[in-house]
Amino acid sequence: MHRSLWITLLLAALFLSPVLPVASQESVMASETYIPFVPYRGVPQSQILYPRLMTPVYIQPGMEIEIYTLLPDVSEVWLVDNVYGVEIQLEIIDGPIQIVEDRSESAVETYYRYVVGGLGEDAPPSIYNLVLKTGAGESYEEINAVFIPNEMQLDPVIKVAHISDVHIGGYGGQYKYAYMYFDRALYTIQAMGADVIVNTGDFLEQQKKRGLEHIYNMFDHLTIPVVSAMGNTDNVFNNRGDYYWERVMGPDFGVAVLPNMIIIPLNFETGDISVDYVYEWLAKTVENYRSLGFRFVGIMGHYPHWDMSVVSQRLVDNFRQINQQYGIDIAFHGHVHRVENVLVNTTGIFAVSSTSTAYGKVFNGFRWVELNVETGEINADKSNVVNLDETYVEYTWFNDFKKRGMSVEIRNGGGEELTLRLPINIMYAGEPSITTSGGVVASLISSETVETDDGEGLALIVEARIGPNSEGVLTVVSGVDEEPPVVVGEPKLIGFKQYNIINFNVDDDASGVASIVVQYKTDGEWIDAEWVEKDSWLYPAVPRDIESFTVKIILTDYLGNSAEYMFQFGEEQPAEEPSEETPDTGGEQPEEPATEQPTETPPEEPTEEPSEGMDLTLMAVLAALLVVAVAIFLFLRRR
Fold this sequence. Notes:
With about 650 residues, this protein is an alpha+beta fold. It folds into 4 domains: about 5-385, Metallo-dependent phosphatases (Purple Acid Phosphatase, chain A, domain 2); about 390-480, Immunoglobulin-like; about 485-610, Immunoglobulin-like, CATH 2.60.40; about 615-639. An 8-stranded mixed sheet has the order 1-3-6-5-4-7-8-2, with no helix packed on it. Strands 9, 10, 11, 18, 19 and 20 form a 6-stranded mixed sheet that branches. Helix 5 runs parallel beside helix 6.
């Protein structure tokens, strides 16, 4: 059948289809099938179409939710909590209902709807992974797809943390700190008690797969829902089909259901925004949720949708028409890398943009927007931006049951005391001990033993308070930490430009590595190694022309335990005996080097690179061979 005929039939079906309820405050079950997303163009690896990581829904006791999946034989539906590992089995009330999308260019043409419910009154508030099990014993999981709100999240005021334009995975320059600021943003937002994270795109830069894997792993550690749209640097066709792309990115258009509010991610960069059925779907979706009592409707996308220098006149006209008929309260967008508020007179939409969350050292942060879903009031003061250089929460490693302890660096650059709630997971169960330094005061709110793959772990919620304009460290250890960090394996030298990089790994199975000091000497005084950048990481290095030297590595953990290690390169030199005494820090944290340095194994090992001299020699040889080849060719041709 001709493609234009397919589109005509699809548009006719959309025009003639009835407007059916999708969700309400008592139930999120539709009386008849209404699809809360537009057709996918790539098959998600989880086999779950909705709800997804980027388009979650909430549920409370007595409510029911719809699940859309590619699986026709789902036998069990589970929710698995991200903090305590709580598992809740839901009841399958209805399904499967088979749905066929008559859209030839879609990779997802046939799928199934199930209606589930049966949530008990004792279900703990948290964000949950959605797990579907089939009759054949297969299991499929979508992280952070369903959340049960706590009492604060049911408050009429919804606290939105708006991040954008992270540009993870770029090389050098402004991309150097993207990973660090992205992690810092998520941990800080979670600790400050946001109800939802809105991310308006441009997750990625060059390193698509590695960046997506990192984003996925970080989202897997959150305890609050996230809603996201793609940006122009995310929607690269070659990424489709990549495992992590399909795990992170949701449908082109979908609905995230919050208490009394919906947020609709609109991916302008897909090309589908210009197709009529998208506008029809959007109009019906807004009308449905308005009729069901949802007081607040937000949309989000990467590009400012009212700016004709960025988007088309047709897009602006369609949104004006939808807003005039149904009303849209707020629009979140990114792309412009600056804080901006606009009351769009042509549409009546209050629009906000976020600064870049991690794009160089000029400014890195996120916006804090408060929405009152009962009164319609919007508190989006442009000054309410968290600067991640001045105020932040930063864990020393992934918070995922991998270590015996956990350290959290906290900085409060504001003029008022900051109260934070910190979820902490550590490998070994036991009586946790909490140590603080600087301006941090902490107390344990709750703890629970959780069964992990490697044994029993401990999940804790700690409340930390830190005074104005101060910084400090909170350390939680299961048991006692009396051992200093260690150097793992033998350090090795790697030639890089005019330096020899000293490459080594360090570890501390409890409180974590707080500082690394590297010094070297030939036959005189100890000299601090220079820290040089390679592949966006900093490594200690010595000048390449030094042939023989001794290296001293001083490691200190967050509880002040310290150790020295000596290594010899080249001809052996008289080496000093390592100090067996732990330096007296007077209860304060040891001073860290002024430059940033990795305290854990980098994600990618540096590969040896030839020296600049070798590069020049090789180029000269190749040039000479090319000249000889050309000469032989010309000689044979003349003959």
